[in-house]
Amino acid sequence: MNSALHPAVQEPDAARIRGEQRSQRLVTAFVASGLVFMLLPGTFLGVWNLLDISAGHRPEMVPQAWLQAHGQAQIFGWVGSFILGIGFYSLTKMKSTKAFPVRAGWTAWSLWTAGVLLRWIGGVTGDGWRVLLPVSAVLELAGFLAFYVSVRRHRPASSGTKDNAWLLLVGCATLAFLVVLAVNGWMLFEQAVRGNSAALPHVVDQQFVVLAVWGVLVPTIWGFNARWLPVFLGLRAPNQRSLYAAYALSIAGVMVTFTRFLPVAEALFLLAAILAIDALHVWERSVNPPKVLNVHRMFPSFVRLAYAWLLVSCLLAMMAARWDVSGGIWGASRHALTVGFVALMVFAIGQRVLPAFCGMHVLFSTRLMGWSLYLLFAGCLLRVLAEPLAYENVWAPAWRILPVSAVIELAAVSLFALNLGVTILRPAGVRG
Ligand code: HEM
Question: Is the pTM of this model over 0.85?
Fold first, then answer.
């Protein structure tokens, strides 16, 4: 059709397509930088740490600042960048009348990426950390604010309330993200002024990890699962009340973590996880055929398995609150949560949705997707089994299993990055 003949029809369409293309470029940038953070500052450093710990048979073998730099790169550099990218992409679907915020988007990407990078450099090198850590916090916060303001401005006037539990959850998690970054800034300024190294005090750091993982990552996943699982897995629509209850319990758990009544906090997290599984009908039969075109056929099973890891993590945390001496049960619990639940979910859902979000691509290889999921599951299983046995001095041969788990997970992560990387570099629409 000729736009000169139908200006009224063509102009909004052209603007929509331009907005979509801009958002696709931006989400591609967030996904690409997220993959880089996941691979090198995140996983490679994590593997390095674990190899050192296993060689010395002691968790204290590795500087705390390195462990923290690894965790930061994974949570903020990888998963955080993916969340921001998907958030910007979703603006084009909000039916807002405003143009896509190109400048705010790229400002957010630059500030965010620079902030996460400086945080990692300050932690790992220990050079100039008194300046780098607070500066990194300011950049991360500023980047996130640029994102947050854009999202708020583009909200349609009325989004209705029916079936919108997912929006509420994702909205709360976004607000919590802002709180997490403000807390991060406050902690890092304190550290720069009063601390004597780039490593935060252990207890403060662990509480912060709980805040970031349970406050942001877990509810974001539940929110997007509420939206996508009925479509991708053919599950019944979520039970909104149970989902809200699960969310409320998990937030209560986060708050109690700061009071240090850890067994109570862990019991709240366990209840929250059970309620969320029930609310999302994760383990029930699909009522419609799952959508597995262009993804690995086991995709629905891995989404369901991720929730098994969430439960395992909560059960291990309850055991840790009672019996942990050297960090092995806590470590296994955190790994079940971050790798078993979060990373497995991102591997499964990410390879399903991101190719389309980055510009109507088709996933490069369903076979690579399958391998990345199987290997991540196997590596996580070995790690979660071996870590308590090794760290808690129960069974010495477990020290030899930990490096194997690390290498298997590295392979999984590399295949995921390769598959998504090739997918977004290829021209749109190419298959196989
Ligand atoms: C893929 C291979 C991975 C390896 C080999 C690995 C290794 C490690 C190691 C050795 C620790 C130190 C604590 C302990 O001994 O348990 C640790 C902590 C941590 N990891 Fe990982 N990890 C991996 C993946 C991930 C992923 C995917 C995430 C998040 C999405 C993550 C988040 C964290 C966090 C938050 C901590 C705590 C850091 C802190 O104490 O501040 N890790 N990891």
Answer: yes
